[in-house]
Amino acid sequence: MKTVRAVIIGYGGMGKKYAQMLAAGEVKGMILAGICCRNAKGQEEIKNQFSDVKVYEDAEAVFASEDEFDAVVIVTPHDTHVPMGLMAARAGKHILMDKPLGISAKEAAVLVAESKKSGISLGMIFNTRMKGGFLSAGEFIKGGGLGSITRAVWVCNTWYRTPVYHSSAPWRSTWSGEHGGLLINQCQHYLDIWQWLFGMPDEVYASIDYGKYNPITVDDSFDLQFFYNNGFRGTLISSTGENPGTNRLEIWGSRGRLTISEGEELIFDENVISTEEFAKTNQDPFGKLEHVRKSLSAKNHKGEEYRMIFQNFSNHLLFGEMLMTPGEDGIRTLMMANGAYLSSWLEKRISYPIDEDLYEKLLAQHAEDEKALTF
After folding, report:
1. Fewer C-beta neighbours within 10 Å, C or N terminus of the chain?
2. Rounded to whole angstroms, how far apart are CA atoms 265 and 298?
C-alpha cells in the first residue's frame, strides 16, 4: 500500500470535518476515496463540494465496492459502531473509529477480537489525548517526575448543552439511541485520558444525576470516585449543565503537585524534597514541607489534534508506526463508563472488570422504561 484510500461513513458534523481535512491533503499518505451518506441532501452537498469523491448511499454499497478503498472512518450513531466495524473487519478493511467504540465493553471486545482475527488495524479518534498539555503530562508522570502518585482530582465541566442540542437528533441523549449521556458521549475523551495516565481503576463509586439540567432520561452530571489497589485515589467531576466551565486536573505525588489547565498549561508545585524523605528527616511536629512553583513547557498542538490522530493512523498503515490510540483503549473507556452506570444503578461500589451481562441487561431495561416516559 502506497496511499491509504479512506472512505468516511457518516456525513454529520464530524464526518464533514474529517472529509474536508482529507480532501485538503492535510494528512500525508491518506486520501479521501469516498463518503457514505444516506440522505439525498447530504449526497448532493458531497457531489458539489467533493466532485472527485465517490458517494455511497449506504454501508452495503460501500462494502460491495471493497476494491476501491483500504480503510473506513466510522462516524455514525453509537449503536452502529460495532456492526459497521464488523462489516469492515470481515471485508479486510482497516478502521478508524469515532468514540465510543460501541455501547458496551462487551460488544466492543467482539470488534477488537474480530479485527485481530482479520489482521486489520483498529484505531480510535481520541483526539483530546493529543492536546499538548496532556501529552507532556503523560511523559512527565511516566518519567517519574511526580514520584509516587497518590491522588488526582479532575473537574471538567466545559460541555454546557441546552435542549436544542439534546433534541438535535432523535437518537441523541437517550438510552435507546445513544445508550447513555455524558459518560458515553463527551466524557469518553476524559475517561481515555484517565486510563492512559493512571491505568484502569480497580473499583468505582458513582454519584450520577439523570436529567438534572434538561428534560432527558440519561446522565448530564456526575461525580466519580476511582479506587486503585495500590492506594491511589481519583475523583472525576463533570456536567453538561454548568457555565462557565473549567478543565482542571490536579495530580499529587511524592515530589509535588502537577496541575493541567484546559489541556494546555502545566504547573508543577515541586517539593524541595520528597514527602517520603521529609517524613523520615523532619523533627518538628508542625514541620512544613516547602515547595517551588514552576511552569513546565507543554507541546503546542492546538488545532492539530484531529490531524495528528489521522496522521498517526496513516503512518501506522504505511510505515508500521505504533498506533497512539488503539481499539483496546476504546474497550477500557467503555468499561469505565459501564462500571460507573452500574455503580449508580445498584448504589454501591463496583469492581473492574464489571459483570458485563448484568450491565447489558440493565441498559436494555433503561431503554425499555424510557419508552413509557413523556416529557
Report:
1. C
2. 7
Q: How far, in Å, CA of 255 to CA of 236, rounded?
A: 22
Contact status, residue 114 vs residue 140, Cβ threshold 8 Å: no
What are 54-84's pLDDT values in tens digits? Answer: 999 999 999 999 899 999 999 999 999 999 9
Residue 371, pLDDT > 90, answer no
Q: 87-109, pLDDT tens digit by residue?
A: 999 999 999 999 999 999 999 99
Helices (H), 1-129: 13-23, 40-49, 59-63, 81-90, 105-118
Residue 148 placed within a domain: yes
Number of domains composing the chain: 2
How far is residue 175 from each of residues 28, 144, 182, 337, measured CA to CA in Å?
Answer: 39, 42, 12, 14
pTM higher than 0.90: yes
Complete DSSP assignment for 299-364: ---TT-HHHHHHHHHHHHHHH-PPPSSBHHHHHHHHHHHHHHHHHHHHTS-EESSP-HHHHHHHHH
Tell me, yes or no, whether 78 lies in a domain.
Answer: yes
Instruction: List the CATH number of the domain containing 33.
Output: 3.40.50.720
CB atoms within 10 A of CB 365: 12
43-75 burial: b if 16+ Cβ within 10 Å, else e: bebbeeebeebbbbeebeebbeeeeebbbbbbb
CA dist 50 and 70 (Å) reads 19
Q: What is the extent of the structural domain holding 59?
A: 4-128+304-315
Q: CB of 136 within 8 A of CB of 338?
A: no
**Count of alpha carbons within 13 Å of 13, Cβ hemisphere only?**
4
Paired sense of beta strands 247-253 and 233-239, if any: unpaired
Encode pLDDT of 280-292 as tens digits.
Answer: 999 999 999 999 9
